[in-house]
Amino acid sequence: MRLLILLCFMAMISSLVGFFLDIVGPTKKIFKIIRRNSVPSIFTVVWVVVIVGICYYVSIRLTTVVQNMNPESEVQVSYEYGCYTITAAGVVAVIASACNLFQPHSSSVQEIPRRRLVEDWEGPESFVISGPRLVDTPLESLPPPPYSP
């Protein structure tokens, strides 16, 4: 049982690493390669396959041991929701890694750097709308017209 818990945590950790790599969008070359080739998703699939295999092995061993202890009784071992949930997580991980592997990537080695949202921003003074007034124009010296309904 401890082995299954450890494998479940390993699957969660590798899935979480893949999630963070997808969210952050790494800039280092090694992390880009890991993300493009969906290495964390592949590890998650491997962990889930091992978990399901061990669950199956344990259920077969339990059936054999109980039948050897009491040959005249009928033993039926069934799976609960946890095994189906782990299997569904493995299927989703396979789909995620397939989508990541089939996604087209740029063929160039260097990707285009992200554009800055505000080009040449030097601070709050760059957003000043009007400059210093040197000369009043004739329209600026006139008061606004009176309000009429």
TrEMBL record:
Q: Which InterPro entries match?
A: TMEM127, TMEM127_TM
Q: Where are the transmembrane segments?
A: 42-60
Domain Transmembrane protein 127 transmembrane region, residue spans: 1-101
> What name has this protein been given in UniProt?
Transmembrane protein 127 transmembrane region domain-containing protein
Query: Which keywords fit this entry according to its UniProt record?
Result: Membrane, Signal, Transmembrane, Transmembrane helix
Species per Swiss-Prot/TrEMBL record: Timema podura (Walking stick)
Signal peptide start-end: 1-18
What single Pfam family name could you report for this chain, choosing any that match? TMEM127
